Amino acid sequence: MKVNVVNIFEKTISEAELHIADGLIKEINVTGPENPTLPYAIPGFTDAHVHIESSMLTPVQFARLAVVHGTIATVSDPHEIGNVLGMEGVEFMINDGKRVPFKFCFGAPSCVPATIFETAGAAIDADQVGQLLANDDIGYLAEVMNFPGVINEDPDMMAKINWAKHYNKVIDGHAPGLRGEAAQKYASHGITTDHECFTYDEAREKINYGVKILIREGSAARNFDALIPLIAEFPEKIMFCSDDKHPDNLVAGHINVLVKRALVLGYDIWNILLAACINPVLHYNLTVGLLRENDPADFILVDNLTDFNVKETWINGALVAKDSISLIPNLQSPHPNRFVCDPKTAAEFIYKNEKKSESQIRVIEALEGQLITNEIIVNAKMQDNEIFSDPDNDVLKVTVINRYENAPPAAGRPAIAFIKNFGLKKGTIASSVAHDSHNIICVGCDDESMAFAVNAIIEAKGGISAAGNGKTHLIPLPIAGIMTDSDGYEVAAAYTLLDNFVKEELLSSLQSPFMTLSFMALLVIPALKLSDKGLFDGENFKFVSLST
Length: 548
Known about the structure:
This protein is an alpha/beta fold. It is built from 16 helices and 30 strands. The termini are far apart.
């Protein structure tokens, strides 16, 4: 194979012949200087932190879509399915990933459940984390979201960290907004990365504490613009990741999009390729080839180093994508699940005011492009002591419903709160993808449409749905209530239709309403969120009342 070999380590480009045998690059025979008429071979892209489950696709289906964009490997935290199925879920991800020519590096989930303030489907304790880390299929301790536990040296959290140290495996971080002495102490326990920085100053400070920064650009959380200047100052400390990416966005692009954006902004190509191709492989000790003799033949061919259009993707010497067509087979998977939830009535979403003489309430303020939220105080729309959604002022009812057990009616009613910035003028959206415990979450303008959307998910035992204008739409997610093994391109097309319905007919103003919805129950991200047990203050780690 005659190509231009891009040697990132030596910062050279040479015409060369690649000799591939037994899945390895046996020889790189340089034949001359750069030849612009030939394609350019570079190491494939690695997503340094992603939850495969957030694509709503199995590892098989995720790989089929990702290789088209030159992605050959991911560093994947399976804690989403872990929160539903525990160890069984982690094993499902590993086994499914082994069925295709793609390099998944799965981690041992460190926080399942994420907190004690919500109902999850399973738990993974310190001993089980140790069992996972002893497995060669597990490459690292996945994001340590319980940063208060690390700072205060909680015994269970420290036991998990110590298992990672025992097996000499990387420890991933997750500490949004953590600064100063607290951040330094957190990092001192062996935390080596953070993908949650949302300002340049925060990220730069953490680099000073020895933490590598993952620049994230997912479907909801997007920090590229704020953090990309770091690549010029600390090229060996930066990686690219998507964290959470819905199927329509994955069809459109992956890590290749970040590479192109950085190039357009004028950043040095060698620093960009370090972040996209080299740094994740070295940091996580991945078995991924880096275009060197005797490495696995993992590489991509691009048309040139300006447009960066991916023409071919090779993994272990096998061609897995060519000219935007995936060559990975469309395989179906088993359907493990845990879903026990009775249908709901509209009456169950009625909220009676706790303080009859007062109308001010705490409201979750969702922020476009961020996982963090604000707590704001608004005047509720009330009648006969009942608080209603107020679409005119964009203050809507939000509910989280336990999907793992049918509790007695008095104790098992949906948790209710209110949220701003979804922009719906009519109808409802709902999802059983609700980080991290994946109960049912729903935002709506009226109780009747909320019941329609929620019950569609309950009947399917998992999915995302929308109801309004006399219509109810559903994408079923039969695997753990969060994934499907249907063809990834068909799922992406169905998702696009559903997303368009929500934006065009229900008039949501969000760029990614379902992805944003999925994070409104993520209690470990400040400031105000909702679990199936109630409204939660993520800064002080305690429940709060709706009324002020």
